[in-house]
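> example.struct
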């Protein structure tokens, strides 16, 4: 029995409890990075794939969830995250713009012989995650957001630990990371607020669990893919 089906009758707050206990730092990609000198080429691969996976789609995923969800309290919390993603009305602070700056700041460490497969991890992640936000029940997208923000908080912390071990990347390029290290903590906290609003039983609860479980797996396997690409340099 898969985790989503097994837990589908449990309160949604247990989604948060479950994934807060999972450490992204335990993924072999980050374990390997921490055990050797700072590898900015591997970090370029991670960030280029993250850009390929989220920059073109994340705003639409979030907006679609807001439009489809029937509980305006849930829509309100998700809209706050969308406003953050779009720079709170400041074009220069749109997260995809800042992510482009980060990747550009790592250009010196871009691997040789970059091909379409070099960013294949991001494209595969986008396809799989996108299916969750367009599932028949929009609560599947809510669950994906809940788990995804917890994962992002933990991954940003791992990335920040690596970046702080060096001083070659310009401070301007790091704006995305500095912003996200603080903001993702707030967004992960929103996951608990969202959980309280999920019905205690019925199909919406089951869909939320299904989306959360699938999204965590998608993101973990994204790091699996990134590690393979880094090894193939």
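> example.seq
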């Amino acid at each position: 029995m898969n985790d989503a089906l097994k837990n589908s009758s449990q309160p949604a707050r247990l989604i948060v409890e479950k994934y807060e206990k999972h450490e992204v730092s335990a993924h072999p990609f980050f374990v390997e990075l921490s055990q050797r000198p700072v590898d900015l080429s591997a970090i370029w691969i991670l960030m280029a794939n993250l850009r390929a996976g989220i920059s073109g789609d994340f705003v639409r995923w979030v907006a679609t969830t807001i439009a489809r969800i029937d509980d305006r309290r849930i829509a309100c919390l998700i809209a706050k995250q969308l406003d953050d993603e779009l720079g709170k009305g400041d074009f220069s602070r749109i997260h995809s713009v800042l992510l482009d700056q980060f990747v550009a700041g790592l250009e010196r460490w871009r691997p040789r012989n970059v091909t379409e497969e070099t960013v294949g991890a991001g494209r595969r992640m986008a396809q799989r995650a996108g299916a969750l936000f367009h599932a028949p029940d929009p609560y599947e997208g809510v669950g994906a957001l809940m788990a995804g923000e917890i994962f992002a908080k933990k991954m940003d912390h791992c990335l920040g630990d690596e970046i702080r071990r060096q001083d070659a990347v310009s401070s301007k390029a790091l704006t995305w990371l500095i912003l996200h290290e603080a903001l993702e903590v707030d967004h992960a906290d929103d996951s608990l607020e969202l959980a309280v609003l999920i019905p205690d039983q019925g199909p919406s609860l089951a869909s939320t669990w299904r989306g959360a479980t699938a999204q965590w797996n998608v993101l973990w396997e994204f790091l699996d893919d990134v590690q393979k690409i880094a090894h193939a340099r």
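> remarks
The chain has one domain: 3-231.
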